[in-house]
Write a structure and sequence with these properties.
It catalyses: an S-substituted L-cysteine + H2O = a thiol + pyruvate + NH4(+); L-kynurenine + 2-oxoglutarate = kynurenate + L-glutamate + H2O. This protein is an alpha/beta fold. Helix content is 41%, strand content 14%. It has 15 helices and 15 strands. The longest helix is centred in the C-terminal third of the chain and has 23 residues, at 315-337. The mean pLDDT is 95. The structure holds 4'-deoxy-4'-aminopyridoxal-5'-phosphate. Residues 45, 109-111, 135, 191, 195, 223, 225, 254, 256, 262, 267 line the site of 4'-deoxy-4'-aminopyridoxal-5'-phosphate.
Length: 433
Amino acid sequence: FLSHSLQAKMSRPVQARRLEGIDKNIWVEFVKLAATYSKVNLGQGFPDFPAPDFLREALTRTLSGGNHMLHQYTRAFGHPPLVEVLAQFFEKLLGRDLDPMTNVMVTVGAYQALFCCFQALVDEGDEVIIIEPFFDCYEPMVKMAGGTPVFVPLRPNPPKDGKLMSSADWQLDPAELASKFSERTKAIVLNSPNNPLGKVFSHGELGLIAELCVKHDVLCISDEVYEWLVYDGKQHIRIASLQGMWERTVIIGSAGKTFSATGWKVGWVVGPDRLLQHLRTVHQNSVYHCATIAQEAVAQGFQRELMLYGKPESYFVQLPKELQQKRDWLVQSLDGVGMKPIIPEGTYFLVADISPFKSDVPDDPNSNEPYDSRFAKWMVKNKGLAAIPLSAFYSEAHKNNYTNFIRFCFAKEEATLKAASDILQKWKQEKTS
Ligand code: PMP
């Protein structure tokens, strides 16, 4: 009798309903595949070159210095030296006064910043507009908050002159975008520069989004983790600086991307207190507090950058210069083997058209997995080269419209990029011989 009642109890679902349909995560799968099979990993977005000396030295100083309190808790919403320097930095960037205690909050990477935004601002039944292709966590995070994601795609317009496509050729259709806004819309997620395409939204495009946000009283969750990685003299424009947007925008940033130290997991949000006060409520009831030592070292990194702002020695000037060369190199080498690259205006990602290589990969008519996903798995297992399928950055409904592309990360040492290029060249030779 006892064992029967125990069994009956155990047949209840153990998981909360909010987890339904969000259990799959492509990174878990592809990171494992890359770890098992890849010789060259251009998949997940992290640099394989060292973080800058000044940052590593700051961490060493922090550890070995006399202040043993840096091993203890600090302020829950951000270590004071870090929120203070972030406030000073963003005052410069946004041209407005900021209060470090109410306009800035430190998080465990940009990822937790995003989670705080959705939990704090999105209610059951609210709609959140997401521009496709998108950094994949936005969708499950909206759903976990009880919201409904509404997708609007960037539409590719290939140049007619046979030139390589640029991320700027992927554009929103203004009428389509406008049609997604309604009284149910609570927020739009903007990610410029965009992962995976590397698109840097123009002033005109941001103006269109801003106008719709103001008209429909919609919030903007602005993921700007690649703010310093912009090429060809382009400028990253902050939507919060457009008319009517500061009061409705949360800016999200990441020390991981900014200082090439993704493992540190230090991120932040900058925005008006009327929004940030609710993010603080989520933060204090979940993570509460981020690692003090990492925050202290990032604060020192920002103090250096504040001093060198705009100067040639600034890391925020040097890093994009170096990455632009890596981008150009990878563009050339992909173009050389016929894997047409879409030239990114920003970020350290590059999307390439795999059409000419697709025929090498066996088709499986019984599978409903998008073809680019099977292609990427085949490529890492058979060629040792890891990349991420573009369909991973689309909603379920639109996944099958974009299965001709894979995303490479080019924040890599020259030797890594060269090894990738060698694999592709050998592959091409095998195809033609
Ligand atoms: N947003 C975007 C667009 C990203 O690409 C990433 C990292 N890949 C994040 C947020 C998360 O950043 P972090 O590592 O600081 O949590």
